[in-house]
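Hi V.,

Quick status before I head out on leave. The structure for the redesign project is tokenized and pasted below; the design run finished overnight.
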């Protein structure tokens, strides 16, 4: 059983990247602070990224379930993701988004998210050190949120600033709230200076690392992403194969590569894993973290016309 531990869905792009407003244009093009960029594949003609398109990609590749995260870049998608959760309860685990740049509002926002029924929360933490004043992960308003998440058995998906910038803060959080379930995003920004500091956060009992976007980090070398495979091997050796999860970062990475390519380098590569370890990496670890019913049954990818 394969679980994608990092995808995105949205109804309409309406967010921020730094101080630049993001908005849709057409044919997968978005405008960020007045500059146009290809933000998703060209066939996303209306710039929507609905669950139905994602399901088509998952079914084609043989993926059972996807974990939906969020970013400030896309804008708050909570209402749309609740619709997805109701419509496809067995195919998606969805995270709610709250604005961690405004700690004074967190308690109210968290209560609303919890009442809506979200089982996970996303924190795009990489922006917090640059705020004036900066927001720290172990500041009192955030600590209150982490404790309440433990009490409600929720999962935190968090993207940290590259390197070791926020790792000491995160270690203090985990020491004070050891029951917090955490997924560190983007494989700790593998290859960037100090990236293994983020990976080693998974030494804590309830912390995992997902590799959503790792093919973007090594886009210049392309499939089969041999350096990415070596980084996965390095991480598995450091924290154990039971602590890392495959993810695609669909649909952003699909501006360069197909969804199958984001999976196949791991499914058919990563030969350093035993069969059991690869099963953990591709699905079993995510199933355990997110409370997804896990089956050993394999969902075969569709046969391609070019194979006939």
């Amino acid at each position: 059983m394969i679980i994608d531990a990092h995808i995105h869905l949205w109804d309409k792009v309406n967010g921020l990247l730094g101080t630049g407003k993001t908005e849709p244009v057409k044919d997968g093009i978005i405008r960020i602070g007045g500059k146009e960029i290809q933000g998703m594949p060209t066939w996303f003609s209306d710039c929507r990224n609905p669950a139905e398109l994602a399901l088509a990609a998952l079914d084609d590749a043989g993926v059972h379930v996807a974990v939906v995260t969020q970013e400030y870049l896309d804008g708050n998608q909570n209402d749309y993701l609740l619709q997805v959760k109701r419509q496809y309860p067995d195919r998606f685990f969805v995270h709610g988004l709250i604005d961690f740049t405004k700690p004074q509002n967190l308690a109210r926002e968290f209560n609303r998210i919890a009442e809506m029924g979200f089982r996970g929360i996303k924190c795009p933490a990489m922006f917090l050190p640059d705020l004036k004043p900066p927001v720290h992960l172990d500041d009192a308003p955030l600590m209150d949120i982490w404790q309440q998440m433990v009490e409600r058995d929720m999962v935190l998906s968090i993207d940290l600033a590259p390197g070791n910038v926020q790792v000491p803060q995160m270690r203090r959080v985990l020491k004070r709230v050891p029951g917090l379930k955490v997924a560190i995003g983007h494989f700790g920004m593998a290859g960037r200076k100090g990236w293994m500091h983020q990976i080693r956060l998974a030494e804590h009992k309830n912390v995992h690392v997902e590799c959503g976007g790792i093919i973007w980090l090594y886009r210049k070398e392309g499939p089969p992403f041999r350096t990415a495979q070596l980084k996965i091997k390095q991480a598995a050796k450091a924290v154990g194969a039971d602590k890392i999860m495959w993810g695609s970062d669909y649909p952003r990475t699909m501006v360069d590569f197909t969804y199958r390519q984001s999976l196949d380098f791991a499914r058919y590569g990563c030969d350093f894993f035993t069969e059991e370890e690869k099963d953990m990496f591709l699905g079993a670890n995510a199933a355990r973290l997110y409370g997804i019913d896990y089956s050993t049954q394999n969902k075969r990818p569709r046969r391609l016309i070019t194979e006939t």
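Above is the designed sequence. The domain at 3-10+48-292 is CATH 3.20.20.140 (TIM Barrel).

G. will cover questions while I'm gone.

Best,
W.
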